[in-house]
Amino acid sequence: MQIEFKVNGKSCSLDICPTMRLIDLLRDELGLTGTKEGCGEGECGACTVIIDGEAVNSCLVLAPQVRGKEIITVEGLAGDGELDSLQQKFIEHSAVECGFCTPGMLMSAKALLMKNPHPSEEEIRQALAGNLCRCSGYSKIIEAVKDVASLS
Amino acid sequence: MGNTVVLTPDNLSELREALKQAAPNSKILAGGTDLVLAMHENRCSPDLIIDLSGVKELKYVRLEDGHLHIGAVTTFTQIKENEFVRKHALCLTEAAALIGSNQIRNAGTIGGNIGNASPAGDTIPVLMALEARIRVMDSLGQVEEKDVDELIVGSGKTSLKCDQVITEVIIPVLGDDYRSTFVKLGSRRAVTISKLNIALVVKYNHVLNTISDVRVGLGAIGVKAFRDRRVEEILNGQQADDHLAQVLAEELSMTVQKAIPGRYSLPYKKEAIKGLAHDAWANLS
Ligand SMILES: Cc1cc2nc3c(=O)[nH]c(=O)nc-3n(C[C@H](O)[C@H](O)[C@H](O)COP(=O)(O)OP(=O)(O)OC[C@H]3O[C@@H](n4cnc5c(N)ncnc54)[C@H](O)[C@@H]3O)c2cc1C
Ligand code: FES
Ligand code: FES
């Protein structure tokens, strides 16, 4: 079926298999492989993208559901060759180890900051509760987000 | 699944038209947090999917004539953040806030929680305790209202016909003299499916310090959530003191023993529910 939507500001019109998941549409059809599949069942958050301002698990969205919607993936964070401040702070705080969880962490944090530019630590923890990291122990990730939240 | 058709109505009249094509092997799709996973794991392969995500008319919370009206496609995030729900049905706010993760709450809907009919579905005992009615519409536009208990008939089973869809949840608002809460226990502190959950609603008389109109909804014990009328009777009219919390804990433990005799999870659940009962009680005061 034919669907139209926007990804990272660009309009797309695609003929898709209607039972495909959004994560497969992004990775396999559009080559946006920054979005990762960890568990494939909504538990790990590696596949998190932002749809119309809300963080969602792209492994649980059916592709036809994004008709008319605006999606932001991790590829959409950096603009004009410049890293988003979240990406910059993740690097400064060494919040990235193997990096598999990072795109999802960034998108959950980005969705939070888009709604609430100065969240409390508790709000940050809540927003990231659906993102698992096997390496970092979380504190560096929380610190990186707190750092961005304290920028004016 | 190669031949699956997905219909994408954009409003209620297109939804009715879409429902005319529904057959036993079709599925309604709302947030997808249960259905997309079931399809991906080949537990479900519908021929026809009717996607509600474009039907914006089914996303709302309204306060009208002493009732909260919640559209079926309203997400848990919208419910958790809604001031009417917080003021008039706090246990539902608490349940929505405890569902899954932020990502799950942003996609998952109240209609999907009911339609999925999981024994562990968190809003189900809450809606039972709130005496909610569920409005259902068919392909001809005919509307029916049902109790949650009539709508959900077993684990994963509803009494909906294939051309019927849940459109609205209607909740009589709790008066200012009511208190309500929802508590759950899972295998970890956050982002967890319930192993036990309790919704508790009471009318509190602060002059006499007594409770009445007690409603206890229990989930994740057996195939389907239920109201514990026996325990409600025991609590009605009693003094709201620490002794009563103890009674609640012991009696709910008794209910668990009667509900799932011999089940492997019984030794755990009959003890765990006591702690959960004390948590619920503490939230009310
Ligand atoms: C990681 C994870 C964590 C979760 N945590 C929780 C939790 O803590 N508590 C909890 O209760 N659940 C939890 N769930 C389950 C799920 O998120 C909920 O059941 C949610 O409410 C489903 O809503 P949905 O809109 O995503 O439904 P969908 O997946 O779209 O649909 C679910 C079922 O309901 C039917 N349906 C949907 N809408 C309607 C309608 N309007 N009329 C008729 N039938 C309909 C569908 O046909 C399907 O059978 C979790 C799921 C995941 C993946
Ligand atoms: S891959 Fe989607 S949540 Fe894990
Ligand atoms: S950095 Fe390896 S999973 Fe988070």
Can you put this structure into words, describing what you see?
The complex is a heterodimer of chains A (152) and B (285). Chain A has 152 residues and is α+β, with helices and mostly antiparallel strands. Chain A has helices spanning 22-29, 85-92, 102-115, 121-127, 139-150, and strands at residues 2-7, 10-15, 48-51, 54-57, 70-72. Chain A has a five-stranded mixed β-sheet, with helices on one face. Chain B is built from twelve helices and 14 strands. A five-stranded antiparallel β-sheet of chain B has the order 4-5-10-6-7. In chain B, helix 11 packs antiparallel against helix 12 (266-284). The N and C termini of chain B lie far apart (52 Å). The chains are: A alpha+beta (152), B alpha+beta (285). The interface between A and B is medium-sized, with 30 and 30 residues.
Name the CATH architecture of the largest domain in chain A.
Roll
**Which second-level CATH architecture of the largest domain in chain B applies?**
2-Layer Sandwich
Structural class of chain B: alpha+beta
- Secondary-structure-derived class of chain A: alpha+beta
Describe the global form of chain A: globular
SSE topology string of chain A: EEHEEEHHHH
Q: Sheet with the most strands of chain A?
A: 5 strands, mixed
Biggest chain pair interface: A-B, 30 and 30 residues
User: What is the CATH level 1 assignment of the largest domain in chain B?
Assistant: Alpha Beta
CATH topology of the largest domain in chain B: Uridine Diphospho-n-acetylenolpyruvylglucosamine Reductase, domain 3
Tell me, rounded to a whole number, the average pLDDT of chain B. Answer: 96
Total number of beta strands of chain B: 14
- Placed side by side, the strands forming the largest sheet of chain B appear as 4-5-10-6-7
* Largest beta sheet: strand ordering of chain A: 2-1-5-3-4
List the total number of helices of chain B: 12
Query: What is the tally of beta strands of chain A?
Result: 5
Assembly type of the chains comes to heterodimer
For the termini of chain A, the CA-CA separation is 45 Å
Largest sheet of chain B: 5 strands, antiparallel
Ranges of chain A where pLDDT stays below 50 over 5 or more residues in a row are none
